[in-house]
């Protein structure tokens, strides 16, 4: 009889990196884009520049 409690990955553990699927975990890239946008927005507003392109 199979013990279903031992099958499958342990909770909180993600799959290892697989070069066949490089776009699966983009959390780091999304976070960096978020930070870059807000740094740029802050720098541009202190200079008094218009932000019409960044907000589209």
UniProtKB/TrEMBL annotation:
<dbReference type="GO" id="GO:0045277">
    <property type="term" value="C:respiratory chain complex IV"/>
</dbReference>
<dbReference type="InterPro" id="IPR036549">
    <property type="entry name" value="CX6/COA6-like_sf"/>
</dbReference>
<keyword id="KW-1015">Disulfide bond</keyword>
<keyword id="KW-0496">Mitochondrion</keyword>
<dbReference type="InterPro" id="IPR003213">
    <property type="entry name" value="Cyt_c_oxidase_su6B"/>
</dbReference>
<dbReference type="InterPro" id="IPR048280">
    <property type="entry name" value="COX6B-like"/>
</dbReference>
<dbReference type="Pfam" id="PF02297">
    <property type="entry name" value="COX6B"/>
</dbReference>
<dbReference type="GO" id="GO:0005739">
    <property type="term" value="C:mitochondrion"/>
</dbReference>
<protein>
    <recommendedName>
        <fullName>Cytochrome c oxidase subunit 6B1</fullName>
    </recommendedName>
</protein>
């Amino acid at each position: 009889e199979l013990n279903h409690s031992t099958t499958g990955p342990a909770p909180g553990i993600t799959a290892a990196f697989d070069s066949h699927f490089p776009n699966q975990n983009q959390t780091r890239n999304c976070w960096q884009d978020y930070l870059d946008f807000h740094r740029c927005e802050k720098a541009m507003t202190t200079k008094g520049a218009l932000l019409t392109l960044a907000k589209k």
